[in-house]
Amino acid sequence: MLFHAKHEKISVIIPAAGLGTRIKASIPKPLLLINNKPILWYTLGRFLTNPSVAEIVLVVSPDIQEESEKLVASLRPIMPIKIIEGGKKRQDSVWNGIQAADNSATILVIHDAVRPFFAPTVIDDGIQLLNTYHGATAGVPVVHTIKRIEGKTIMETIPRESLVQIHTPQLFHASILRKVYQQAQSENFYGTDDCMLAEHYGYKLAVIPDTYENIKITLPFDLQIAKMLVKKYESTYWSRI
Ligand code: C5P
After folding, report:
1. Ligand 1 mean position to 27 CA, how many Å?
2. Model confidence pLDDT, tens digit, residues 137-188
3. Which terminal residue of the chain, N or C, has fewer Cβ atoms less than 10 Å from its own Cβ?
4. Position 20 pLDDT exceeds 90
């Protein structure tokens, strides 16, 4: 089974309904400004100019619904963007997004609202990997030494050659992601990323090479890095919006 992007119908689901308590800001994290534009503007912008994307499902908390609608309208997107309400945990928000996505989507891409800096090759490389895998996720090799601890006591060192740090975007055959999410939600099985659900039910997944710049804007410090990265990429990633 060979996949060609032009025969695929890609829906991108963007969970943006987190509270963002770790960043200690008064406004919800997806709306925090970097050089006068909300983080969400940058993240949406990465998909708006991608001709393979048929639809975007933006999952938000009720307190940013109105602002999100204004933001989306200001972007004048060429594809439909649905704005829907999130859930208690990220997984619940993604599940809402999956259910709201067009039934005819063949590939679902899940991407965190707070990661505007993924490598430009990730989506196309991920689509290619779906020729041979059920799903694929952006990731980079772990550069630190990682140890397992109990309390303060070091129990073991995990060989880092076998470790990757997982990011989003994560891409899946739509039928498979729908199936694993349906099952996980009904069994109350929660994972820390979308791939973890597919792994749990025995599916074959791959890593897509990404860049270390694909930070998840989580802590106040990350905003400083994000400002530098916006400057670096403003004339490439967002030049056509
Ligand atoms: O909290 P965490 O860092 O895992 O959030 C990753 C992404 O998931 C963020 O974009 C956040 O807005 C989103 N999220 C969500 N619904 C939740 C919790 C997090 O959409 N209930």
Report:
1. 15
2. 999 999 999 999 999 999 999 999 999 999 999 999 999 999 999 999 999 9
3. N
4. no
CA of 153 to the centre of ligand 1 (A): 31
Residue 234 CA, ligand 1 centroid: distance in Å: 25
Per the CB < 8 A criterion, the answer to whether 117 and 46 are in contact is: no
Looking at residue 223, its pLDDT comes to 94
User: Domains in the chain, please, with CATH?
Assistant: 5-237 (3.90.550.10)
Q: Which residues have C-beta atoms less than 6 Å from ligand 1?
A: 15-18, 30, 59, 86-90, 93, 112-114, 216, 218
Average model confidence (pLDDT) across the chain: 95
Q: What are phi and psi of 175, to 5 degrees?
A: -65, -35
DSSP state string for 155-200 = EEEE-GGG-EEEEEEEEEEHHHHHHHHHHHHHHT---SSHHHHHHH
Cα of 9 from ligand 1 centre, angstroms: 25
> Quick one: pLDDT band at residue 1, thresholds 50, 70, 90?
very low
Which residue out of 112, 170, 192 has the highest number of ligand 1 atoms within 8 Å of its CB and is therefore the one to mutate? 112
Report d(CA 15, CA 97) in Å as an integer.
8
For atom 19 of ligand 1, the residue with the nearest CA is 18
Q: How many A from CA of 230 to the centre of ligand 1?
A: 21
